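Just wondering, does anyone understand what follows?

——
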Amino acid sequence: MWTYKGQEFSEEHIGSTYGYVYCITNLQNGKQYIGKKFFSKAGYKAVKGKRKKIRKPSDWLTYWGSNKTLFEDIQRLGEQHFRREILHLCTTRSDCAYLELREQIDRRVLESDGFYNDWIMVKVRKDHLKFHKVK
């Protein structure tokens, strides 16, 4: 189960959002993982004998992050010992990338043993941040 602002988050809450930035917390030792996930992914469909690009639902409901150590801990301890919470709902892909980076930097995930995050990689252009500009 994913939560957002303390409430259970399900498919009917997605609306027009593109994805989310999340935090997965190991409830036994407090170790966390900060990441992003999109509600849909690219796919293809045959239309009149031609291949057409479409968006189809992603595996976001069952997603547990991409970190190998986190995955091993989930397998060893069980999903019930982890909390999955949505920190930010994002309207664009770039919004997700920027907010994930901001959370990772603000929390200093690479400087602490309290996080599963091993590396940060992002490409964000200034014009992608129309919703985050300081006035």
Q: What stands out?
A: The longest strand covers residues 82-90. The mean pLDDT is 91. Residues 2 and 8 are 6 Å apart (CA to CA).
